[in-house]
Amino acid sequence: MNLHRGIGMTSQRTRDRMVQQLQQLGIKDQRVLEVMSKIPRHLFVAEALASRAYENTALPIGQGQTISQPYMVARMTELLIEDDLPENVLEVGTGSGYQSAVLASLIPRVFSVERIRPLQDKAKTVLDEIGFRNISFKHSDGGWGWKACGPYQGILAAAAPAEIPAKLLQQLLPMAKLVIPIGEEGQQVLQRITRTDSAYEVETIEAVSFVPFLKGRA
Length: 218
Ligand code: SAH
Hints:
The chain is α/β, with parallel strands linked by helices and 218 residues long. The protein is 28% helix and 26% strand. S-adenosyl-L-homocysteine binds at residues 61, 65-68, 92-93, 95-96, 98-99, 113-116, 119, 141-143, 158-159, 211, 213-214.
């Protein structure tokens, strides 16, 4: 692992403190906590923000986008893997690549789609440097999913559409879960959709605040 910036505010002690805070906020899945205690989150933000990387907050990553708050990364991952660890997962919104790293530490094959090329390029470089070899990337509008590599045992989206994209539902295997924020800015909720044999079961988890799910590539 490339830990050349792993001193002071970016040390193991700082990561442990973040994990303690996640536990206090109700994250229970030990697999998620363990993985987040190891991943060097500071490498996924600009060097000037590295000292704030372990605060429980979203931070700017350029192009008007943000790295998701650690609590949200943990909660979404926990919801995705609660019953069974999926074999393959589609992530919509690579962004900084931090959520991809969390997923790829737990799940054998991760497929990540991002509409903003420079963000995805940067994420790829960091993930490659840290040593992840089980993530595939596509520069595309995640509203289409990634059919060629699916269907998936899980899908996670980090941007909020007004309605659940039909293509994502179609690319779920039976019993698979989609974890996604839904709704307009200021009134979003996190939902978990489980595909059953004959229907989609929707659970509403909690109020959230994500960047919008936009159409097309940039
Ligand atoms: N999990 C990422 C979240 C980044 S923010 C992280 O923690 O860094 C959400 C990302 O979703 C942004 O990078 C944004 O460009 C991307 N996004 C928004 N709409 C999208 C779409 N339709 N397809 C693919 N990516 C999208």
